[in-house]
Every structure is written in C-alpha cells, then in structure tokens.
Amino acid sequence: MIAPASTDQLPDDQRIVITGIGLTSPNGNNLTEFRESLLAGKSGVTEYNIRYFGDTVAGICDFEATRHQSRRDARRGTRAGSVGIYCAREAIASAGIDWDDMQLDRVGVYVGVTEHGNVETETEIHEIKQFDYDVKTWSHHHNPRTVANNPAGEIALNMGITGPHYTIGAACAAGNAGIIQGLQMLRLGECDFAIAGGVSESIHTFGIFAGFASQGALAAHDNPSKASRPFDKNRNGIVVAEGGCLYTLERFSDAKARQANVFGEIVGYAINTDATDFVLPNPERQAQCMNMALRKAGLNADDIDIVSTHATGTGMGDTLECDAVRRVFGNCEKTYINNTKSFIGHTMGAAGALELAGNLVAFDDKVVHATINVDEIDPECQLDGLVLNQPKQLDGVDYILNNSFGMLGINSATIIKRM
C-alpha cells in the first residue's frame, strides 16, 4: 500500500495531541498505578455480588469520589457521573492546566458510553417495590440521572464548563469514539480544549450480568483474577467491569505555546459498521476499519509497533478479531499484540480509552505489557507477535493502534504517534 501524506504535513493547528490523562480502573486510580499493575501482571477482577443475580466476578474501581465532588452531589448524581468527574479533574491536573484561567465556553466535553440509565432505573424499581409500587416514592432526581447526556453533563456542572457537552453512544467502541469526537471538534474550531474519552458504571446493573449470562457469554472461574482470559483455549466469557478514562486534547499549536507535556499525537482514526449481525463481529469490516485508520495516518501496517486488541474473552469474538488482525498485520515481523481486558475485565464504554492509556506509557519505557491468563492458547487465536503472560521489551515504540468494537457491528480504531 502506498501511504498518503502523514499528519506531520498538517499545520500545527490541525494536529491534535494528548496532554493529560485521568483514569480509574479496577487495578489503578491513575496512570502510574495502572501501568505498574499491567507490567506486574496484577489483575483487578474480584468476587462480586449483585442483587437478583447473585454471586459473580467483576472489575471494581476504588477511587476517592469526594476528592472532586461533594457528598451531596455524589448522592444526587450517578456513579458514571462520579467516575467522569474524577477522571476529568485528574486529567486537568495531569495536563498542568490552570483551570481558573480557562475560557470555559471554549471547552468541550465528549464522553463515550455503552449504556446509561439502567442502573438508576433498576434501583428505583427496586425501591418502589418496597412501597407497593407507590409512584410517590419515585426519586425526583431520576430524570436528570438517566438522560443520555448525564455523564458529560455532570462533568460540565462540576467544572463550570459552558461549552458543548454530550455523550457518544457507541456501544463498546465508545471510548475511542469519544476521543475521535474531541479531535474532530478541535479541528472544526468548535472548541479550543477537549475533555474526551469514555466511562462506565456497568457493574451496578444486574441486567447486564443477566443478559450476558443468558447469551452464555458471562465469564466464571474459581479464581476471580483468572476469569478474564482472552485468547485462552478455555475462556468462557466476559468479565463486566466499571471504570473511566478521559484525556485532555489540544491543538499542537496550543500545546507548544504553553510548553505542555505531550503523551502522543492522534494521527489516525476510523469508525465503520459491520451491518451483518446484532452481536457477531465481522472480521472483514474490522480489518477494513484498521486499514482506514492506517490510510488516514499515512502509515503502512508494519509501521505499527503495538496493536491493542478489543478481545473480550468470548469464543467467537476473540477468534474473529484475531482473523481481522491477521488480515492486516499477518506479515508484520515487528508488530506486537496485547490485550488489557485480561487484567481488568470489560469496562464497556471506557474500554477503548482505558486500554489505550495502558499502552501509551510504552512510548517512554518501550515495554509491551502482556496478555495475562493465557494458560493454553486457542490455536484459532494464535498470532505472530502476541505477547503472552510476560511483558516484552522493545528497542523503541513509535506507533500504537488501539482497537475497540461493539454490538450492532460498530468498529473503531485510533492510532497514536510518539512525539
């Protein structure tokens, strides 16, 4: 493939860079903790019990919500909102921004979500049942808690942001979709500073566990830390997890002017649709999505150092994604492939953004974190360059491609360049 011109040839006000990262995950509440856990092989999956469904396993976050939010506001709002506020505030601190000097009507908030409102509705129905379904007991906070823009809106309220805010519903591709939206709005001049990524509160709804269980797609294991096992021959499904990761995105011209630390430049991205099935992935369309991102970045497949896979631990999902990755990177001798869900489970709307963050540090330490819990590789998931169980030290890392796919056939890929 003859690659088109790279983003290096764009003017600096069209080049979009990452200048701050705020996150909470089941195995770390900031980028340093998260990366240390990934390199040490530390899982964040643990035993979990949720009403009606019962005992299971999940990836559970343990961040200090009241660091950036009053107890009253936390009670009034949602778990997704608290996750988003924590991540947004931590991203601002990471970026070294003086928030008091920000022009808040030029800040945009773009938060990817898989679903929102199920937790609150299930809770209200549970509560109203205790009072013989008397609707007078229904919370007057229910509507603002369940509107689709809630997580982004709670961030805007907490931080006094008066620019655009909305959520991007993109199933489990939503983390990447939030990043892509932020980039596009900066390029269009609709904002001058973007807070973008994804959040999830999924473990707090019993319906998602029941739904995956009814599909035969919910993971189980005697040892919770080994329940999430993408690519393993004996994998048996998804571990549901909560979490969030939001980035501060800026035009390179603005980042340079304030001498900001830059984590990387977003040089390629793509979103497309399978249009073939509600849940079964289409490897041809997934491969097409990766190739579209490569073309947009002006790169060839063998320029990519790390491919971060979406693989969730389901039988067909992992196999079909490996087929797609093989189509694009099958002849690349220096491309390495890993998976982050093996550590934390599937954080749904946050997955793409969190998994990217876990790999971004490789630009500095030159290490590819492993995929853990692979005791016996599924032959259909065997990929050249797949890093299993132990991290891989490289001579250098210049480009990372991050896959994130979702139900209804939505596919996304982002490519980040070392600066």
Blueprint (SSEs and pairs):
Blueprint (H helix, E strand, L loop, with lengths): L15 E9 L6 H10 L4 E6 L3 E6 L11 H6 L2 H17 L11 E7 L4 H12 L12 H5 L3 H10 L5 E5 L4 H15 L4 E8 L5 H9 L28 E9 H6 L6 E10 L9 H15 L8 E3 L6 H15 L6 E3 L2 H4 L6 H10 L1 H4 L1 E2 L23 E2 L5 E8 L3 E8 L2
Parallel strand pairs: 4-5, 4-6, 9-10, 9-13
Antiparallel strand pairs: 1-7, 1-8, 2-3, 6-7, 8-14, 11-12, 13-14
What does this structure look like?
Helix content is 33%, strand content 21%. It is an alpha/beta fold and 419 residues long. The chain folds into 2 domains: 17-257, Thiolase/Chalcone synthase (Peroxisomal Thiolase, Chain A, domain 1); 268-417, Thiolase/Chalcone synthase (Peroxisomal Thiolase, Chain A, domain 1), CATH 3.40.47.10. A hairpin with a 3-residue loop joins strand 13 and strand 14.
